[in-house]
Write a structure and sequence with these properties.
Blueprint lengths: L1 H24 L5 E4 L3 E8 L11 H19 L6 H24 L2 E6 L7 E2 L1 H19 L12
Antiparallel strand pairs: 1-2, 2-3, 3-4
Length: 154
């Protein structure tokens, strides 16, 4: 559990730091960080995932908690490896970063814009959640030892 906690804490710290820096320094327009690949653009998202459920604060505060609790309940029956702990730490840290900001401000600061994905502006928490989920999918498909049930016969 130490790895999961360390990864979650590092993700949360990095996410909140980058959101604060974006709020302080990106108010005057876009900054091209890597031409044709990454632009820094300050936006406020009062929804989830591409602005879905915008304006529905109750759902935005309840739904993420329900999803994380369901994930935790499902994972309890498996012997969690360091690989899956790191993936879960990324997901948990990203969840906490966006959830805390949504609780405090009512919206989430996004700043990472990819010109080749013109509908998509995200933040470090979003990237961490996506990467953590991708690691879990990879683990499910190619690392069957990560999903050994606790009560299974060896």
């Amino acid at each position: 559990m130490v790895w999961m906690g360390l990864v979650a804490a590092a993700t949360l710290f990095l996410d909140l730091l980058t959101k604060r820096l974006a709020t302080l320094h990106l108010g005057h327009g876009d900054v091209s960080a890597i031409p044709w690949l990454l632009t820094l653009r300050l936006t406020h998202n009062d929804g989830i995932a591409l602005g879905l459920m915008s304006g529905n604060q109750i759902a935005l505060l309840v739904l993420p908690v329900v999803i994380v609790l369901c994930g935790w309940l499902m994972l309890r029956k498996y012997h969690i490896t360091i690989y899956t702990r790191i993936a879960c730490g990324l997901i948990l840290g990203g969840f906490l970063g966006n959830y805390i900001e949504r609780l405090v401000q009512g919206y989430v600061v996004d700043m990472l814009y990819f010109p080749f994905l013109p509908w998509f502006v995200c933040n470090v928490a979003d990237v961490a959640v996506c990467f953590g989920v991708a690691l879990l999918v990879f683990s499910l498909l190619f690392r069957p030892g990560d999903w050994r049930e606790k009560n299974a016969e060896d």
